[in-house]
Amino acid sequence: MSALQELVAMRIRTFIREPEALFWTFGFPILLAIGLGLAFREETEPTPVPVAIEIGTAAEHYLDALSAAPEVEPILLDRAAAEQALRTGEIPLVLAGTGSVLFRYDPARPESRQARLLTDFAIQRAAGGTRPVEIAEDPERLPGGRYIDWLIPGLIGLNLMSTGMWGIGFGIVHMRQKKQLKRLIATPMRRTDFLLAQILARLAFLLFEVPPIILFAWLVFKVEISGSLLALLVVIMVGAFTFAGLGLLASSRARTVEGASGINNLVMLPMFVLSGVFFSASRFPDAMQPIINVLPLTALNDALRAVYNEGLPIGALSGELAILAVWTVLSFGLALKFYRWQ
Fold this sequence. Notes:
The chain is of the alpha/beta class. It folds into two domains: 49-139, abc type-2 transporter like fold, CATH 3.40.1710; 147-338, no CATH class. The protein is 63% helix and 7% strand. The chain has a five-stranded mixed beta sheet. Helix 6 runs antiparallel to helix 8 and helix 12 packs antiparallel against helix 13 (318-338). The protein is elongated and about 85 Å long.
């Protein structure tokens, strides 16, 4: 029994000395619960459903009535903005029409069906019930409007972040542990070239990382790319550069695999929860949005969805690409300055 007791105590002490195991066992569930709790927090009062009213249509006649209704939140938009909001899922219902009110929505979305019922109820209630208001409907399935259409770009972004940081981080730490970096620095090698080589080497793996996801989503779920392949390629390459740079920075001082793993988890976990991979980042409180919007994974996911689901050209993605470029330059510069070569 004494031998058994010693073996049990040895295993417990070994587990306690592993920061990565402690984090994933005790820390990660708590942090994930905090993030999801903020995103799906319980409202003290029912949240009104946003509906779009096209400017200059018959639906504008009911703007005041819908504004007074607690169930819905009318938003005035022009036709192009309303169509884009409906296609991207920001608005579940659009009110338009010439002679009478027209409801445009995607019948496959539960939130669209709910918005239709609540808006119809608010309009009929405002009319006083004496004579029902005639409402026409235009239900149609919108390309890029399913959850799987929204999810696939987020998974691509998550994959680029994970492979960029883990692939570079572990490789560098292994070289540092084996004293290979110390030997390389003694050669006529420029440090800038070494770090750039790590980033450029990431591009060789993109062919084996991203196309299988795109092809699988198209064959199995019929998820199509609305924009150009060139625009998608540019966004993917910029994203790969960004997270390769962050991987270099995360591994710049770590001497052990455990240390690199802890740093990578610290960097990646907030983006895993906050950056809209599995659900929209708009669910988080407004006070958090400025921070969320400047995270590199948020910018990458937004750019991927803009090309994938909305078909936007590169020129419309200047904000997202600028954020990614700043993170790339900043992380590479800091890695070059603080890199530990032995």
